[in-house]
Known about the structure:
Layout: H1 5-10, E1 21-29, E2 33-40, E3 49-54, E4 57-61, H2 64-73, H3 79-95
Antiparallel strand pairs: 1-2, 2-3, 3-4
Helix pairs in contact: 2-3
Amino acid sequence: MNLGKKQTHYLREAHIDFTSFDIVDIAPQPDDHAVVILAHKDPRISHLRFNVQYRGKSLWYESLERLMDICVSMKLYRRTEANRVLKNFYETKEGGNGND
C-alpha cells in the first residue's frame, strides 16, 4: 500500500496490520493527532467489522454507520464528513476497488 507523507505522519499512533485491514478514512484532529478508521478484511466472517483508533485507543464496531454516529456525537467528524466517508466506502466496495 502506497501512502503519502501526510497520511504516514497521521498513522504514527495507529497500529495497523495492512494484511488484515483496509484504511477507510484518516481524519486529522487538533494537536497533531488523527482519527483512523479501518475495515477488517477477514474472509472467515460474512460481514465486515470496523475499527477506530484515536490517541492510542482502539474500538470495534459491527457497522460503519454506528461508528460514524459515535464519531459525530464525539465531535470528531461533522455529519457531512461522516456521510462522505459512508458514501465513499460503499461506492468503493460496490466497485470492487477496496474492501473485497
